[in-house]
Amino acid sequence: MARLVNLLAPGGRLVIVGLAYNKTFLDWMISGCGLPVSRFLARRHGGKLGPVGMPVEDTLMSWGEARANVRRLLPGARFRRRLLWRYIAVWDKPAAPEERQEGGP
């Protein structure tokens, strides 16, 4: 993540779409609300989980861990939980301070 922040231009926006796993009872309840949508999409797409050859890796962070890491690494980022175990984090890099002009009063 630090590498992405360094590559981002001042005033730029970093958008992260990630996955998290359920750890608490509340996590399970919220994710359970997404099951009807998940089942519908699976039927609609013939049971496919994603495009063929798409790399998929299991997540190593729970919802709380993902949120805490985003807040720690990207102060001021917006963290939103989405359906199907996804989250979106949006962070705007502060704009560079304007150069001091020489020869002022």
Question: How would you sum up this structure, described in words?
Answer:
The protein has 105 residues and is α+β, with helices and mostly antiparallel strands. The protein contains four helices and three strands. The chain has helices spanning 2-7, 25-32, 35-44, 63-73; strands spanning 13-19, 78-82, 86-92. Strands 1-3-2 form a three-stranded antiparallel β-sheet, covered by helices on one side. The protein is globular and about 55 Å long. The chain starts with a helix and ends in a 13-residue tail after the last strand. The mean pLDDT is 85.
Summarize the SSE layout with pairings:
Layout (H helix, E strand, L loop, with lengths): L1 H6 L5 E7 L5 H8 L2 H10 L18 H11 L4 E5 L3 E7 L13
Antiparallel strand pairs: 1-3, 2-3
Count of discrete alpha- or pi-helical segments spanning 4 or more residues = 4
Order of helices and strands: HEHHHEE
Q: For the residues shown, what is the average pLDDT? A: 85
Rounded to the nearest angstrom, the radius of gyration is 19 Å
Helix content: 25-40%
Distance between the termini: 43 Å
3D shape:
globular
Count every beta strand, where a strand is a DSSP E run of 2 or more residues: 3
Spans of 5+ residues with little confidence (pLDDT < 50)?
none
Structural class: alpha+beta
Oligomer: single chain
| Percent range for β-strand residues | 15-25%
The description of the largest β-sheet is: 3 strands, antiparallel
Order of strands across the widest beta sheet? 1-3-2
